[in-house]
């Protein structure tokens, strides 16, 4: 059962990365739209557009930068498990380790 859960988490992890790239791109698009209102002179609240555009641009850029670094790391370590460290690996659940290493006991713990 634990093995099935770990596989499910790994499959979801890839889709989460795609979602983050889309979210970062959308934030950059929103920043552009807000700033375009300032450049065109159509923005009613110029200060709010400037602050919002800057915030969206920074957040989108950070999300995309983080995903780019994660992609580069995954690509570099894909075929070389010797370069992985414990810090890089996802944290394992201690309860799952105890169940696999301990001998089977009855339901009442005896």
Question: How do you describe this structure in short?
Answer:
This protein has 110 residues and is mainly alpha-helical. 72% of the residues lie in helices and 0% in strands. The mean pLDDT is 76.
What does this structure look like?
The structure is a single chain. The protein is mostly helical and 110 residues long. It has a domain at 12-81. It contains three helices and no strands. The protein has helices spanning 2-40, 46-77, 94-101. The radius of gyration is 23 Å and the shape is rod-shaped.
What helical percentage do the residues reach? over 70%
Strand content: under 5%
Oligomer class: single chain
Largest sheet: none
* Poorly predicted spans: none
Shape: rod-shaped
Structural descriptors:
72% helix, 110 residues, mainly alpha, 3 helices, rod-shaped
Write the topology of this structure.
Layout: H1 2-40, H2 46-77, H3 94-101
Helix pairs in contact: 1-2
């Amino acid at each position: 059962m634990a093995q099935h859960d770990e596989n499910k988490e790994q499959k979801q992890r890839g889709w989460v990365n795609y979602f983050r790239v889309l979210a970062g791109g959308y934030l950059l698009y929103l920043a552009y739209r807000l700033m375009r209102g300032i450049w065109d002179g159509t923005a009613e609240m110029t200060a709010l557009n400037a602050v919002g555009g800057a915030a969206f641009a920074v957040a989108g850029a950070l999300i995309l930068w983080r995903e780019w670094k994660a992609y580069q790391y995954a690509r570099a370590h894909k075929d070389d498990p010797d370069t992985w460290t414990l810090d890089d690996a996802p944290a394992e659940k201690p309860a799952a380790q105890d169940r696999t290493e301990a001998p089977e006991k009855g339901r009442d713990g005896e």
